[in-house]
Amino acid sequence: MSVAGTRERGRLTFKPGQEQSFGKGLSQCRHDFADSGLFSDDTLAALIDRYPREYYMITTTTQSADGLEWHNGDLNGASGAFVLKAVREGRLWLCLRRLDLVAPEYEALVNGAFEEIETRNPACASRRRTSSLLISSPGARVLYHADIPMVALWHVRGRKRFWLYDADSPKHLPDQVLEGVVLRESEEEIAYDPAWDAEARIIDLEPGDAVSWPQNAPHRVDNLDGLNVSITTDYFTPEAERKYGVYYANGLMRRLLGVEPRCTATHGPLALAKCVIALALKKLGIHRVQERDMLQSFLLDPKRPGGTVHLPREEWRPILQA
Ligand SMILES: [Fe+2]
Description:
By secondary structure, the chain is an alpha+beta fold. The protein folds into 2 domains: about 15-235, Jelly Rolls; about 240-290, no CATH class. About 25% of the residues lie in helices and about 30% in strands. It is built from 8 helices and 15 strands. It has a 15-stranded mixed sheet that branches. Fe (ii) ion binds near residues 145, 147, 151 and 219.
C-alpha cells in the first residue's frame, strides 16, 4: 500500500527515518505478510491441527482479588477450526512457538523482512531470532512486562492497543527489577501503576502494522476488536547482547557481593569485562534459577466455544514444552 510521506521498497514500508531506528529504538513500518495467504481461518486451523503439544501454549485469565491471574491450559483435542472459534468467542491467548521448526513458511516471512531491513540499514545486525505466532481473543490483554531481548511484533489481523513505557525510567523499570528479569528470578511480569499510563506512548496496531521498540522497554497490550493474529520475533543485536551482559553481571554483583552497581554503560572496557564475566558465570551455572513447571490447570470446553473447564488443583499436571 502507499502512504503519504513514506518510501516504498520491497515488502516493507517505513516512514522516513524509521528504518534507521529498527534494532535500537521505536520503529514502525507496514508489512505485507497477509498477502502470503497464510493467515486465513482455514490455513490457521490447519496449522493448529498439526501443531505438536510441546510447541504450543494456550492461556486464559481469571479475575481474583489481587487482579488478573494467568492460567495455562490444553486444547483438549479440539480441531483447529474449533480452537479459532473458541479464541474468537472467549478470552484466550494461543502461542505457537518455534515457527522455525514447525512452520518454516511463516518463519520465511520474518526472515525476508529482516533481510530487507538489514539490507536497507546495515547497522542493524540481528541474531538469535525466534518467532511465534500469537492468536488471541478480541478482549485479551497482555499485562505490563519487560522482555529480555529486542522484540518485533508483526500484526496481521484484528486491532490492538500497545502501551509503551520508558525503558530508561527508574520509575517504570528500576535497575534492580531489570536485573531480576535478566537473571530470570522473576517472570517478565513486573510491578505496574496505572498512573504511569499518562506517560505511556500509545500505538494502535492495525492489520499490516509492525513495531519494534527499545530493548527491555516495559509494555502491555489490550486487544481492541476482532480475532487478533500476530507474529512476534525475539532478537538480539550486538548492542542488545552487551546490555544483557551488563545487567546480568550487575545483578550478580548486587546479589553475590552485596555491591550496588553504579554503571550501566554498554560501551567501553568495563562493559566488555562485565559481558565476559557474565558469559562465564552463566556457563558455570552460578545463580541458576530453578525453573518453575508450567502447570495445566484448564481444558478448552468441547461443548462451549470460548468456554474453559478449570481443573481441581490435584489434577494440575506439568505441561511438556521443548
Ligand atoms: Fe512483550
